Structures are given as C-alpha cells and as structure tokens.
Amino acid sequence: MLLNNNVTEFILLGLTQDPAKKKTVFFFFLLFYLGTLLANFLIIVTIKTSQAFGSPMYFFLFYLSLSDTCFSTSIAPRMIMDAFLKNNTISFSECMIQVFSSHFFGCFEIFILILMAVDRYVAICKPLHYITIMSWQVCSVLVAIAWVGACVHSLVQIFLALSLPFCGPNVIDHYLCDFQPLLKLACTDTYVTNLLLVSNSGVICTVSFVMLMFSYVIILHSLRNHSAKGRKKALSTCISHIIVVILFFGPCIFIYTRPATTFSMDKMITVFYTIGTPLLNPLIYTLRNAEVKNSMRKLWSKKLISDDQR
User: Fold this and answer.
1) What DSSP element (H or E) covers 90?
2) Which of 188, 229, 255, 268 is 20 to 30 A off residue 22, Cα-Cα?
3) Interatomic CA distance for residues 146 and 122, integer angstroms
4) What is the pLDDT of residues 110-142, one digit of tens each?
C-alpha cells in the first residue's frame, strides 16, 4: 500500500559541502561523464556500422555500452549539476525516477554481463554448436528477457520506496537517490524493508557474481585443450570480461548485501561503480580487443577522409 508523505522534496548533501571541493567535483566528474558518453558512443557506432562485428559477442557488447551510457546518464548529470549549484534539492517524483532508472539500467547491465559469459562459454566449450545455440533469434530473446528482468527488479525497488512513510527530515547524506539512503529517512521501522532490499538487490548481485566467476573458471579450465593461438585470444577476451565483472560487482555487493548501516567510504565506493565503471568498461574492451581498435581506426579514418573531400 502506498502511503501519504509530508515530504515533497529531498536535499542531497553530495560528496562534499566545501565550495572549493565542489568545484573540483564538478570539473572531474564532468570530464568522466563526457568521456563515458564519447567512449561508449564510439563503440555503439562502430559495432552498428561495421560488418566485421556480426557475432553475438559484439551484439551483447553493443547493449553493454548502451546500458553503461544510460546508467551513467541516470546519475552523473544530476551529480554534476548539484556540484555547480547551491540549491541541491530534488523533488520526490524526480527522486523516485532516479531510483527506478539507476536500478533498471544497473540490473540490465548485470544480465548483459551474464549473457556475455554464456556466449563465451558456448564459443569456447562448444564451438561446433555455437552458431546453432547462439543464433540471432536466441540472442534477441535473451536480451528481451534481460529488459523484462531489469524492469521487474526496478518496479520492486519503486514499490518498496513508495511504501515508506517520510515525515521529515528530508536531508539525504548522499549524491543520489537510492533505496538505502531513503531508508534512513523513513519514520517507521525499516528492518523488514531492509531485508527485502538485501534479498532483492543483494541476492541478484551476489548470485550473479558467483555464477559469472564460476562460468569463467570453467571456461579458463577448458582452454587447456585449445591451440596456443586460440588459447591466447580466448584468454584475452575472458580476462577483459573478468576485470569488468570484478570492478562492477565488488562495490555493488559491498553496498547492497549488508544491514542498513553507513560507512564513511560508502559514497566513494558508490562513485566507483556508478561513475567509474561505465567509463572503464569501454576502455577495457577496446584496449584489450584488437578487432575493435582496428575497426574503430578504419571507420573513423574513412569518415574523416570523406568529410575532408566534401
């Protein structure tokens, strides 16, 4: 049941209240966000315009870059704006939208990472059946299921948030609206609600991480039967995926699998997976993937040449 609240807006304290430090936050995170948009935009355009990326791996990489872009956009612009302005208020409805969007795209990214692990498992462990198992129809259905699963997860978060009564105060000691900071402001016992949060977000993060790491252990173990060249290429791809998984899931598990307690490092850890990881993902995938780098170089060189000839 949704409850009436006396609170119509929240005040976000941000990362710092020091004016000089807020300018530093504004500058650096604006650069991070613009870098995230540019890096992921390059990957999205390269995959969509190059015929060399016809495999399911790049199909899923396209959606990973898309989710990174949307995930970062659901958080970073507001954070950057609040570091620039003195009035850091956010309306109740805007707060709920941020909770929904950040969890939606964050959960969608988790499912895409799982699909990428499945794709690598089939490609390395069952290469003769790869085309049959990972057909375009199957991949499209899997991505659709990921969209639906992310939507269900986010709707649960919103339902739990809207069921909380807020009577005041309305100051959130964070730079974003998330379910855990909101729990501290609720004027009711939140023990059961926090358990529901852990069983929702916490379980998704932890189970997904264990599944992913277990799958990559199986994949790496199976590489012993491959040729040296094939083993090197597959190992490079898997290491990239493992790095992304650890960088994303480590902070998420720390934040969402514990009781409703606050640590001084929470904000910086949240910054790492909400702002840092969306920027690191495209860098990791492009720097460790020769095909992506070469295709990017060729594609954008052709575009520059054609622009100069006009």
Assistant:
1) strand 89-91
2) 255
3) 19
4) 999 999 889 988 988 888 888 899 999 999 999
8 A C-beta contact, residue 245 and residue 113: yes
- Residue 241 above 90 pLDDT? no
Distance between CA atoms of 87 and 152, rounded to whole angstroms?
A: 33
Instruction: Determine the pLDDT at residue 262.
Output: 66
Sequence letter at residue 6: N
How would you classify residue 270: left for phi > 0, otherwise alpha for psi between -120 and 50, otherwise beta?
alpha
Nearest-CA neighbor of 276 among 88, 75, 95, 99?
75
Q: Hey, what are 228's tokens?
A: 């040296």
112 membership: H or E segment, kind and range: helix 92-125
Q: Smallest Cα–Cα separation from 251: which of 270, 267, 276, 265?
A: 270
Tokens of 106: 């964050």
Residue in 179, 33, 27, 208 with CA at minimum distance from that of residue 111: 208
Measuring CA to CA, which residue among 12, 18, 27 is closest to residue 175? 12
Task: Assess whether the previous peptide bond of 169 is cis (omega < 30° from 0).
Answer: yes
- Is the pTM for the entire model greater than 0.85? yes
CATH classification (class only), 9-295: mainly alpha
